[in-house]
Amino acid sequence: MKWFLLRRLGGAVFVLLALSVIVYAAFYVAPGNVAQIACGPRCSPAQVAQVSEQLHLGDPLYVQYGHFLQGLFVGRDYSTGTGVLHCQAPCLGLSYQSDQQVTELILAKLPATASLAVGAFVLWMLLGVGTGLLSVWRRGRLTERVLTWITLAGMATPVFVIGLLLIIILVTALQILPFPDYVPLTEDPEQWAWNLLLPWISLALVSAAPYARMTRASMLETLAEDHVRTFRAYGVGERALVGRHALRGALAPVIALGALDIGSMFGGAVLTESLFGIPGVGRELVDAVKHVDLPVVVGLVLVTGFFVVLANAVADILQAMADRRVVLA
Amino acid sequence: MSLVEVSDLSVSFGEVRAVDGLSFSLEAGGALGVVGESGSGKSASAYALLGLHRGTGAKVSGSVRVAGVDVTAADDAELRALRGAKAAMVFQDPLSSLDPYYAVGDQIAEVYRVHHRASRRAARARAVEVLDRVGIPDAVRRSRSRPHEFSGGMRQRALIAMALACEPQLLIADEPTTALDVTVQAQILDLLHDLRRETGMGLLLVTHDVGVAAESVDEVLVMQSGRAVERGPVGEVLVAPREPYTRALLAAVPRVTEPRISSGAKPADDGDDGEVLVEAVDVRQVFGRGRTALAAVDGVSLSVRRGETLGVVGESGSGKTTLGRMLVGLLEPTSGRLTRDARVQMVFQDPVSSLNPRRSIGESVADPLRASGERDETAIRARVRDLLTRVGLAPESYDRYPHEFSGGQRQRVGIARALAAEPELIVCDEAVSALDVTTQAQVTALLAELQQELGLALVFIAHDLAVVRQVSDRVAVMRRGRIVEEGSVDQVYGNPRDPYTKQLLAAVPALDPALAVVRRAARKELAAA
What we know:
Chain A has 329 residues and is mainly alpha-helical. Chain A is built from 13 helices and two strands; from the N terminus they run ααααββααααααααα. The interface between A and B is medium-sized, with 21 and 29 residues.
């Protein structure tokens, strides 16, 4: 276990550094005058040159990346014209746009995204796995076919369509739910949940479909395994067969997929956040890309990567706890 | 009323009629062996006894009564009450037949609680009791182990313990020893024998291995294509069969007690004549490193001479396949010296997976030709057609695909492919193990014929001692990566020196039920010594 964690940690550092290199390289070759965009459309060429100087945009790529690494591991000083701003490690740099520290910027947006992601995750796992199990239970009957069509439709429908439909029905017509207005959990838990309900449901509905299909396929496979046949031949009832002997094995790939999805969702559910006006990292990412705000983009990519790696490690540990044959290495 | 009464049973899967109008009965406490080759419908019949075809899409007709329950008419609850409590089943592959997620003792306890009102603790105690009965050492502690922590033999014992938990009147064993090594097989068969005497339960043993049936049952039922061919007391059917099919089946079974039918190729002496084709001196093959390092082959020396057949026998994990792979050059020895002065080819065990399903068999056979640089398509085609004829297949088979062939035919294709490179030595790794006995006999005959005609040397790797005796001039017995005994076939089989060889030979089931009784006693003595 100790070695597993150490190895995973080493792997994570490597993956995250590789990600940052790729993003740096991609931005270096991307078109657009970064200094001009950062300075604004009305800047004079002299002002643009000054901004370029300030942001070290004239330096070669590896020097810029070196500065980034320095900030990340030991911290870094920025001249603000009038004084010096010290950015403590881990420093992801300053936003070209707002001169705000990227770490602060992300930390400010992360709670909203996390709220959306975790809530939706719980809902879609319940919905997906439940639907999958139901279609196995009713296999060969009309219910299964109907469920198959619904999940197929769910996979084909974009979140903004479902979201809009839900807004029209639940908010405008029936007026059961308020139009979402994000309230931080720390302020008012009840309002937080009430306002997030609609985004959660929308996101869960579109995300659940692959889980339903996977649960169904995996469950059917497990039910055909020899050890399930053994217990059937010993008079164990169908419900116990599914619940005790098939479910554990069948859920393993579902959990692995879930880990990937929840991890990447921490990088922002862009469409959902935009649709419901949730001030999360997804909208921040779109803005940053639009304005070639390299530090913010790199920071967000790293945060997303971190959560994906983390969620995967958690999934592996869960897997090893469920199945003693799995050795963590 | 009989314990089992089956009349006019038919089971079809789609168009295929697996069981076709089968009738038989089994009295309480009796033991019936259902013997047949693959596809004869023996397992499908056994499954029907517990109503296991229900919900699978198979069509079942006829009537089946087991322990007073009309299986075909019973509702699900009645069926569940029958399964495990009145009739219990033991399956072929003991690893996949147990749930990997739960402790063995808990699995047995679960079955017990399905049929008895008992507390968890009482059910657990019962599980330990039956595990102890089937010979699991330290049953209290081992009952907490997961199946993967058990050896193959212990897993099968655990399954038998599960079957015993509710004291059924009938035990159905579907190829219970097929996945096991021969020494372990003997232990399991002896266990079944003792249990039957002790509990008085009936036994229905399904097996492809006539020897296994001879060891364990009073009566046999020979099946072919879903029908019963012959039925009678085991001593009569196996000793003096009436039906031509039974006779053919028995004639094809290789016997470990009979000396080799001389191929006339060369005298089966220690073989000092003939040039050495491959020589291994103290070769080792180590997999993994550090603490997990495992020497699959641990210091083996041997040589193979032109025109001879060297048999290599051993149980699973003895390193025989690894040795074969080194002889061919698929693996480099970790240490030791290996000299190869001949073209060497290999024939593999599984004729299904060792042929590419997406390429015609002609293309597969042509591969070695192309690999050796032949470019002339007409020459390749002519040569392949020639090779196919050589191994007894129609030359028109060139453009057909593997799935159109039976297992035996596919193995012929594998042999043709090995011959294509004009080898002087062919290593056959369990080349006939996946085949039915009649097919097995045909393929070994083909190999002997080719050997005589082409002067081939063969290394015949197998776990089946009887087959090895039938084809080899010299035999090497392997255990844990080493050769424990090597010598001429008559010497090793007739007068084994190494205790392990003796143990192996004592474990091979005898075809004669009278002899089986003697050998069972001999095994007990050997185990006690």
